[in-house]
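Re: folding output
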Amino acid sequence: MSEDQKQIRALIERWAVAVHEGDLDGVLADHADDIVMFDVPPPYDGVRGRDAYRETWPPFFEWQAQGASFEIVSLDVTAGNDVAYAHALLRCGTQKELADNPSNRLRLTLGLRKEDGRWLVAHEHHSFPI
């Protein structure tokens, strides 16, 4: 595994812990100002910009406070010199949701770019299978 892949893996793992802990500053860290996110809930045309991205998280944290999990099951990273992508599967749901459908996984795809020697998430996509 290259040093860039290690850095990106650590970035994503930190982000997932921040999401699970409801740490908004940690969630926003390492995200580009012009982030584009396509998420499970609306808006249907996605979220554009760091401020809009920030606004999506409080409702998720409220839902998650009911005892939901958010944990990485698998993570793959491919990195070039200045762009990279990663895809992951996560256990995301309440205890009841996970008990009712234990194989259900949140699918995560990230696009990253390197700016001034630092990896930043420029695109984030979440989805569940229907």
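--- second protein (sequence, then structure) ---
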Amino acid sequence: MKKFGLIGKTLKHSFSKKYFGEKFDREGIENCEYELYELPDIAHFPDLIKNLSPDLVGLNVTIPYKLEVMQYLDEMDEHATAIQAVNTIKVSADGKLTGYNSDYYGFKDSLMEWELAGKSALVLGTGGASKAIVKALEDLSIPYQMVSRRSSDKTISYDQINENPDFIADNLLIINTTPLGTYPNVEEKPDLPYDQLSADHLLFDLVYNPELTAFMQEGINAGAKTKNGYAMLVGQAEKSWAIWNDKDE
């Protein structure tokens, strides 16, 4: 039995187990199982690998271990190295552990469904989720500005955006990488001058529960195109599967 799974600290709301279980049934994939492995501390990771060997083929990694797990890997691909976060691990037949970041691919593929020529972006949030997004924007040659609660040499603040509407007018792609608006706090949204949005704007929210966030609703009210994080989530899951099964291009 080939074993796959997800490691993290709290996994009761995991998307992955249900997704891969349905994938195995739908596509007639046999002799595979996908389980959740909650780790109270990343120090338990080596024991998990030992206990699941030699059947373990691959793992996904979620918060808070996307950075911490890197110390236990034998190598990483170029995107994971640049992003400094791993969410997919491939276990080779000889036990070598290789880290990847499939979030990068999931976001990039989902974003490219839009017409992006000539657009620049505001990236809301500077946490771990923003790292793969920024790398994808750089590789797509899309200029971007990071937005945080406090300004710094690398970020502007929400107060600055609210004081100067040109930030909204000049950046037609707005990406929310914060958890604001996630169920059950569905009324929350980033502090932006939403009255400055137009039908030319594109709003991408990494949140996928609820399907329509308060942030996205503001975009819809202005006639903008919107997208939630579900397609990105599916994309990163399928990329993980391709990596584990040597179908990665």
